[in-house]
Amino acid sequence: MSKIDEHELIAKVTERVIAALKQRQPFDGLIPVGISVRHVHITPADLEQLYGPGAQLTKLRDLRQPGEFAANQTVTLIGPRMRPIENVRILGPARSHTQVEISRTDAIVLGLNPPVRPSGKIAGTPGITLVGPAGVVTLKEGVICANRHIHLNEADAARFGVKPDQEVEVEVEGDKALIFEHVQIRVGPKFVLEMHLDTDDANAAGINCGAKAWLRKR
């Protein structure tokens, strides 16, 4: 092997080691909490209907999960009570189905009764009207209250001793300490460890983004 080949090999190995070290975090058993406010996932076709031909999502800021972002685009939600909720953020990237995730409090304002579902499970859910600067989209279904869930990669799942779609109990401390039940485990190769609660759950526990939680029962 030539010196050049050795140097190239060392460089590649070093690069991989550094990348692996950056992904490692000290394991203390704590789970960061992210609070998910009302938002919309949207198809390219529905985005064009709301924002005009050729419209594409533009990034406002990255979210914790790799590849996901809060878009600059927002919509107004209108339900049966005709009381609009304005400036509801669209999250990217675009999806194959348009979906609206709201809290139970939002549902009361809108006059809806959506079920608690994992993201993407929209069959049989209520519809809603979305209003954008260029048009209107009326969904026959697609409104859910997102279930409580934890994102983990395979290594995290192994360390916590949990499996995909398992339900666990999670405890948070504070003046309004709570134990959350029926928290779904979601495992994916690119997931970053984080528990997602909606605003109603977070307010009930008196916590903000960045709070810590831990598994109470596996």
From TrEMBL:
Keywords, ordered alphabetically: Acyltransferase, Metal-binding, Transferase, Zinc
Protein's UniProt keywords contain Transferase: yes
Pathway this chain belongs to: Polyol metabolism; 1,2-propanediol degradation
InterPro entries reported in the protein's UniProt record: PTAC (IPR008300)
GO BP of this protein: 1,2-propanediol catabolic process
GO terms assigned for molecular function: acyltransferase activity, transferring groups other than amino-acyl groups; metal ion binding
Cofactor(s) the protein requires to work: Zn(2+)
Catalytic activity as recorded in UniProt: propanoyl-CoA + phosphate = propanoyl phosphate + CoA
Coiled-coil regions listed: none
Family note: Belongs to the PduL family.
Purpose of the protein: Involved in 1,2-propanediol (1,2-PD) degradation by catalyzing the conversion of propanoyl-CoA to propanoyl-phosphate.
Protein name: Phosphate propanoyltransferase
Native source species: Hydrogenispora ethanolica
Upper taxonomic lineage: Bacteria, Bacillati, Bacillota, Hydrogenispora
